[in-house]
Amino acid sequence: MLKKRIIAVILVKDGVVVQSIGFRKFLPIGRPEIALEFLTSWGIDEIIYLDISASKEDLSPNYDLIRKSARKCYVPLTVGGGIRNTSQVSELMNAGADKVSVNQASLNDIKLISKIASLYGNQCVVASVDVVKTENGYKVYDYVNKKSTTESPIDFAKKLSDSGAGEIFLNSVDRDGSYKGYDIELICSISDAVNIPVICCGGAKNGKDIETVFEKSNVSAAAAGNFFHFTEHSVNITKSVVSKKENIRLETYADYIDSKFDSDLRLAKKADRDLEEMLFLRIEKEVI
């Protein structure tokens, strides 16, 4: 049985990692290379790095920044933003990307998916689909033009799969930055319609939301951005919660399996007796 994956999303705007709220408001967090280094050290399974300003401003990927950031990353790295042709994909691979995420280009020219897949293999292509809920049901969202399209996300996901995409990165625009949990209805409709792995994103507050989406859908991976940046031990705590019900990777010394948490899944203080006993424990420095 394949293990479920927990993925961190790094949104980069004008060279700075940002927190996104509804695709409208962006709050600065810090430098990409530091974010990648921390997430790698904390035991994240994969990282998706998205330059959200590249496509909007008709720019090419920032290869130098991606190369600098990739040096700090030792897990599979997917890079997206500003991709319009296969030569850019080649440059991104040379800069350290393991996979590429194609969003805006697939809306304009879905044949690019096939071209990338034919050159680098289906496993290299992550097709990104942004979705909003309208009066006429779910529709694919064009984030550059800030409007919904007439395209059904189910039909579009099938087209992407048939074109050679290896994975679907499904993002709920309505849930982005909301901390309301994943849109299970949307996620199930897509994951049940295609035969390739689906990564869901949008709305996660903590590990409980990831546990819930794994329980109620057949997605291969759950992705989140905001709470991984702002919650101490976020990756380790998430995995300690999810691992009780799902088959996931546990690769760090600190697993928090027996720890207690508050209602927001923050670590609760241990009893004084436990803390005294821990003073005499010898813990070797972890090397990842």
UniProtKB/TrEMBL annotation:
Gene Ontology molecular-function annotations: imidazoleglycerol-phosphate synthase activity; lyase activity
E.C. number(s) listed in UniProt: 4.3.2.10
Keyword Iron-sulfur annotated: no
EC main group: lyase
InterPro entries in UniProt: Aldolase_TIM, His_biosynth, HisF, IGPS_HisA/HisF, RibuloseP-bd_barrel
Catalytic activity: 5-[(5-phospho-1-deoxy-D-ribulos-1-ylimino)methylamino]-1-(5-phospho-beta-D-ribosyl)imidazole-4-carboxamide + L-glutamine = D-erythro-1-(imidazol-4-yl)glycerol 3-phosphate + 5-amino-1-(5-phospho-beta-D-ribosyl)imidazole-4-carboxamide + L-glutamate + H(+)
Membrane spanning stretches: none
Gene3D superfamilies hit by this protein: Aldolase class I (3.20.20.70)
Amino-acid biosynthesis among keywords: yes
UniProt pathway: Amino-acid biosynthesis; L-histidine biosynthesis; L-histidine from 5-phospho-alpha-D-ribose 1-diphosphate: step 5/9
Keywords: Amino-acid biosynthesis, Histidine biosynthesis, Lyase
GO biological process, one term: L-histidine biosynthetic process
Subunit structure: Heterodimer of HisH and HisF.
Function: IGPS catalyzes the conversion of PRFAR and glutamine to IGP, AICAR and glutamate. The HisF subunit catalyzes the cyclization activity that produces IGP and AICAR from PRFAR using the ammonia provided by the HisH subunit.
Alphabetized PANTHER family for the sequence: IMIDAZOLE GLYCEROL PHOSPHATE SYNTHASE HISHF, IMIDAZOLE GLYCEROL PHOSPHATE SYNTHASE SUBUNIT HISF/H IGP SYNTHASE SUBUNIT HISF/H
Protein name (record): imidazole glycerol-phosphate synthase
Organism: Leptospira wolbachii serovar Codice str. CDC
